[in-house]
Amino acid sequence: MEREHCLGAAVPARLGADLLAHLDGQESPVEPSTEAVANAVSLALHEDLTPNGDLSAALIPSLIFAEGVLSSRSTGVLAGSACATEAFAQIDPAVEVVWLRNDADRITAGDVIATVQGPLASILTAERTALNFLSRLSGVATTTAQWVEAVAETDVRIWDTRKTTPGHRALERAAVRAGGGWNHRTNLSHWVMLKDNHLIGASVSEAVAASRLLWPGRTVHVECETLEQVRESLEAEADALLLDNMSPESITMCVAAVRDHAEYHGWRPLIEASGGITLDRVATYASIGVDYISTSALTSGASPLDIGLDLDSEQSRDPGLQSGGR
Hints:
Layout: E1 3-5, E2 13-15, H1 17-24, H2 34-49, E3 65-72, E4 76-77, H3 81-91, E5 96-99, E6 106-107, E7 112-119, H4 120-150, E8 157-159, H5 169-178, E9 192-194, H6 204-214, E10 220-224, H7 227-235, E11 240-244, H8 248-265, E12 270-274, H9 282-286, E13 292-294, E14 307-311, H10 313-316
Parallel strand pairs: 8-13, 9-10, 10-11, 11-12, 12-13
Antiparallel strand pairs: 1-2, 3-7, 3-14, 4-6, 5-7
Helix pairs in contact: 2-3, 3-4, 4-5, 7-8
């Protein structure tokens, strides 16, 4: 069943039930699922500990305990706390992590975000894996927040893409949410997206009709590179349009065509813009009247946030020990 979904634009979009449910569910937690976290951490630890475990930590007596703090060394948005906790837990359940800040919180250099205590050897073994997840995912959240802030004066939402680290999609999508962004389709089976290569040997109208026949009720999202393709997609009653690698001027003409169509037919597709849009120009694109701007920069272009672990020298019984990860 189709319903209208108003994203603040002058004319509401008519969306398929699957896309509507996806958008309505975007208030989901900023943490990834427990299963996704456990699987990703298990693989990361396997990479770090195969085949002989932590040779250096094995030299530390098991009765030596330590306390320390995880602290931010730069400004950004926190994400990945569940992965860090899981890394310590999988190495040794005796390691206790207490979070003072939550995912989606803004943090600045010097902020203590968590305390860690437990057997020193276990802490050191899990340290780098925990910091890798924290730094990477906080970097994604921080980059996303920058894009969201850049369009804050508009109704446009920032979408991620499927250009994620293989095996870490659920984690990175959660980090995007922590940064205030929105998630695009989860995977290839979520809804139909017809890109240029899918249209080789078929018109937009033929491809949309075939999609309706094979997958009734599914959203059909069409990539358009020209105004003519936009008009053909409107005629075919596509649910969503991806305006790909277009200039602001071209997008303006496409948005006008969609609005003209809406005035006559009483509905319009959702409008997404993507391709060649940089952070310093995203506000210009957002002001045109699209609903979403998607960018792979949220994940593929994110720099890690500098986060470190500092151990209490007295508790560790080694006054010279202070670590930021090996």
